[in-house]
Design brief:
single chain; alpha/beta; Rossmann fold; seven-stranded parallel beta sheet; two-stranded parallel sheet; 11 helices; 44% helix; globular; binds nicotinamide-adenine-dinucleotide; Epimerase_deHydtase; NAD; NAD-dependent epimerase/dehydratase domain-containing protein
Length: 320
């Protein structure tokens, strides 16, 4: 792809910062919007900017997507070609207790961005969606055409709503949009509220971990570099409209994942087996045929390599 000006929202976040690094290194002009909200320790967001993006050229706006005028100024200042919209209030469990912030960040924030994408004739809009739109699926692997009308968390409901808002902008104004449904993304610089992070932290601190669903859960764990490959390919393709799963294409038992963390940390974990939590699903497993066909998406990283990479980062970053 020839050099483009690309707006990444949520660029201080886990996925957005990795995407920014990759795109800057490929020669693109990257503009980042992030509000550095305190959903988890903002010092990790600051560290991604100061370490992961160290010495790289980019422009950062510390603004909120809910602030239409502030975001509009960014579009006035830069001739943006493409948007990779990663910013969102994430987290399934948190959404049950704090629904309003999901309405603000995910619904209003996304609507503001779609409206500006229309006004400024953006060539391609990538929307970070989620496997959570499938609810508690019963047939596997999950296809993009499977039911998404019964979200079992507020978070999932807002992610599906973002897809619907995006479709109407595509239909009415021919905005090219690709909705990418990510499946449990993990890797260095990952989010502290996600299992791999808290399990690894517990391993080094010698504290017990809570294992929900009595351990009988499976996830399609997707390594960050593979996911970023998929996002970059979607940015390159600029499909008129697509909804695509991005996963590894395999369901990994949670207990195997925990064993891999124990192996790479050299610590054994004490486990509290608990029931499923509201909003959680028992299993995810992506059918990635569509992404393979349309984007030549090809995830490469094994669970073992991915967990090793995460644990190595954790040890270095937290000096344990
Ligand atoms: N990590 C996963 O496993 C996963 C899975 C499915 C979908 N997703 C989606 O991928 C995207 C990125 O997730 P992540 O794991 O990097 O999360 P993250 O929380 O690390 O990153 C999101 C970033 O967006 C910023 N942000 C949130 N609301 C904002 C607003 N209103 N204005 C400006 N900035 C705002 C946050 O400060 C944060 O830095 C999200 O849309 C998330 O829903 C992630």
């Amino acid at each position: 792809m020839t050099s483009q000006t690309i707006l990444i929202t949520g660029g201080a976040g886990f996925i957005g910062s990795h995407l920014a690094k990759r795109l800057i290194e490929e020669g693109h002009e990257v503009i980042i919007i992030d509000n550095f909200n305190p959903y988890y320790d903002p010092s990790l967001k600051e560290a991604r900017i100061s370490h992961l993006l160290k010495d790289l050229p980019y422009t950062l706006y510390r603004i909120d997507l809910e602030d239409f005028e502030a975001v509009q100024k960014v579009f006035e200042t830069h001739a943006i070609d493409l948007i990779a919209h990663q910013a969102a209030q994430a987290g399934v469990r948190y959404s049950i207790e704090n629904p309003l912030v999901y309405g603000q960040s995910n619904l209003i924030g996304t609507l503001n961005l779609l409206e500006l994408a229309k006004q400024y004739h953006i060539k391609g809009f990538i929307l970070a969606s989620s496997s959570s739109v499938y609810g508690d699926a019963t047939s596997f692997p999950i296809k993009e055409t499977d039911e998404t009308d019964k979200p079992i968390s507020l978070y999932a409901a807002t992610k599906k709503s973002c897809e619907l808002l995006a479709y109407s902008y595509h239909h009415l104004f021919e905005l090219p949009v690709t909705c990418l449904r990510y499946f449990t993304v993990y890797g260095p610089w990952g989010r502290p509220d996600m299992a791999i992070f808290s399990f690894t932290k517990s391993a080094f601190e010698g504290t017990p971990i809570d294992v929900y669903g009595q351990g009988d859960m499976a996830r399609d764990f997707t390594f960050i570099d593979d996911l970023v490959d998929g996002i970059v390919k979607a940015l390159e393709k600029q499909l008129p409209w697509a909804v695509l799963n991005l996963g590894r294409g395999q369901a990994q038992p949670l207990m195997d994942f925990i064993t891999s963390i124990e192996t790479h940390s050299g610590k054994s974990l004490q486990k509290n087996f608990l029931d499923m939590q509201p909003g959680d699903v028992q299993k995810t497993w992506a059918d990635i045929t569509q992404a393979k066909t349309l984007l030549s998406f090809e995830p490469k990283t094994s669970i073992d390599e991915g967990v090793q990479s995460f644990v190595t980062w954790y040890k270095n970053f937290y000096d344990v």
